[in-house]
Design brief:
Bound molecules: zinc ion
CATH architecture of the largest domain in chain A: Orthogonal Bundle
CATH class of the largest domain in chain A: Mainly Alpha
Radius of gyration of chain A: 17 Å
Shape of chain B: elongated
Number of helices of chain B: 7
Distance between the termini of chain B: 46 Å
Order of helices and strands of chain B: HHHHHHHEEEEEEEE
Oligomer: heterodimer
Mean pLDDT of chain A: 84
Order of helices and strands of chain A: HHHHHHHHH
Largest sheet of chain B: 4 strands, antiparallel
Helix content of chain A: 55-70%
Number of strands of chain B: 8
Strand content of chain A: under 5%
Mean pLDDT of chain B: 75
Low-confidence stretches of chain A: 1-15
Structural class of chain B: alpha+beta
Number of strands of chain A: 0
CATH superfamily of the largest domain in chain A: RNA polymerase sigma factor, region 2, helix turn helix motif
Largest interface: A-B, 81 and 53 residues
Number of helices of chain A: 9
Strand order of the largest sheet of chain B: 1-2-3-6
Helix content of chain B: 25-40%
Strand content of chain B: 15-25%
């Protein structure tokens, strides 16, 4: 049973983010304020999911935003949307941080990791965010339990697939394929196209 | 167990940054050569970004000013001189093309450690067979990949008895053809399937399909030449010089 949820194209993040980033790439600081408004919330959400620690999350978020400013001239629209570029960077930096921290192994108890569902921030007032959240949540429900856990632990918690396999006591190959087919199912459910 | 043998299945772990550095490098290496995986990675990365958007949360108020103050002191990187050309930049033109690109990509990957495989869905089952066929497949699958991926590749599919079906792919520019069987039943004991080029009514041997290869892409032996079609028969082990049985399949080449 495949549940397809399309909310037209409006769920594509910030129609003018592409333009803003293009202007930032030309060195316009005023345009960067617009980029900040569009991406700071998602960046913080992604980073905080992985790092958990509030102070560290804020630090990494700021570093990511500065890196967006610095590297905007090198952003290549042909390889993906600006939001994708920025959130990929945010996720990468959060994961780098958590893996470099010695205490990462002990950062959370197994049970706590497993019990966690992603923190969907219910107080957000932005309609766009609310719709996006509903849609993602519905689509996550279309995944099998293993797909959902693999995707959630890897993406929202920043675990390697080896760590996911260990945590769920599954063979590596299983986690690998669940991650892939889980994301593919999400892609189809969310109507992602490039 | 390492995953080095199979970069295709790592696209999900790759976009979720769930790989260790070494595997990550292997996947990136593969992505530079495989447009199908590169495209999948682009789509799954956009998907992951949507997961990210869904957990957006409001930063503290003062952060905006802090960040805007910081960037005022940070010098930007210089733009790339020019975008590096590469396989990733070439968009697939159409779905139909992407199916061939997929096959080419699967076959190309197989050239590094397995026999040629057809659809992604069948890849996993076929992987076991592929391991056994590793050595023999190497050279063949390179050429096979070239045929399936040729810009002028044309295909025709047909359904045979017993629910089997097949697709023939011809590249005029390479003067080669490939046959992709699906669900071909095992030949009777002591028999094999033999492929033929149909040179205007006279049949020219084009290779054997051994047991366990009923779901594979095969490069047909020899040039297409003036052949206008292909045939498939059941022959005694080792094959025959001329068909000795009624064809299981006869197909005209696509034009
Ligand atoms: Zn590939």
């Amino acid at each position: 049973m495949k549940e397809v949820v399309h909310i037209g194209t409006r769920s594509r993040p910030g129609p003018d983010l592409q333009d803003l980033v293009a202007r930032v790439a030309r060195g316009e600081q005023e345009a960067f304020a617009g980029v900040y408004d569009a991406v700071a919330g998602p960046v913080l959400g992604v980073v905080r999911g992985v790092l958990r620690d509030h102070a560290q999350s804020e630090e990494v978020t700021q570093d990511v935003l500065v890196e967006v400013w610095r590297t905007a001239p090198r952003y290549r629209p042909d390889l993906g949307t600006a939001m994708n570029w920025i959130l990929t960077l945010a996720h990468r930096r959060a994961v780098d941080r958590v893996r470099s921290v010695e205490a990462s192994a002990a950062r959370e108890h197994k049970a706590a990791l497993l019990a966690h569902t992603p923190e969907f921030d219910e107080v957000s007032e932005q309609v766009e965010t609310r719709l996006e959240r509903e849609q993602v949540r519905r689509c996550l429900r279309t995944l099998t339990e293993l797909q959902r856990q693999s995707v959630t632990l890897a993406y929202y918690r920043g675990l390697t697939y080896r760590q996911v396999a260990e945590l769920l006591a599954l063979p590596l190959g299983t986690v690998k394929t669940r991650l892939r087919d889980g994301l593919i199912r999400l892609r189809d459910c969310l109507g992602v196209s490039t | 167990m390492t995953s080095a043998d199979d970069p295709h299945t790592l696209t999900g772990a790759y976009v979720a940054h769930a790989l260790e550095d070494e595997e990550r490098a292997q996947v990136e290496d593969h992505l530079a050569r495989c447009e199908v995986c590169a495209q999948e990675v682009r789509e799954l990365a956009e998907t992951a970004a949507r997961l990210g958007l869904a957990v957006a949360t409001a930063p503290r108020r003062g952060m905006r000013d802090d960040v805007l103050r910081r960037i005022a002191t940070v010098r930007q990187d210089v733009p790339r001189a020019e975008p590096d050309p590469g396989p990733r930049r070439t968009p697939l033109r159409a779905r139909r093309v992407s199916r061939w690109a997929l096959a080419a990509c699967v076959a190309a990957a197989a050239a590094f450690g397995g026999a040629a495989l057809w659809q992604h869905q069948q890849a996993r089952d076929a992987r076991d067979q592929a391991r056994q066929a590793e050595e023999r497949a190497r050279e063949q699958s390179r050429e096979l990949a070239a045929v399936l991926g040729a810009p002028d590749a044309k295909s025709r599919s047909g359904r045979f008895a017993d629910g089997a079906s097949g697709t023939v792919v011809v590249s005029a520019s390479r003067d080669r053809a490939a046959f992709i069987a699906a669900d071909l039943p095992e030949p009777p004991p002591g028999k094999v399937y033999q492929l033929w080029f149909n040179d205007d009514g006279s049949m020219r041997g084009a290779g054997l399909i051994g047991p366990g290869q009923g779901t594979q892409a095969m490069l047909m032996d020899g040039p297409v030449g003036r052949a206008t079609g292909m045939g498939l028969t059941v022959e005694p082990a080792g094959g025959s010089d001329q068909p000795t049985s009624e064809p299981v399949a006869l197909m005209d080449f696509p034009t």
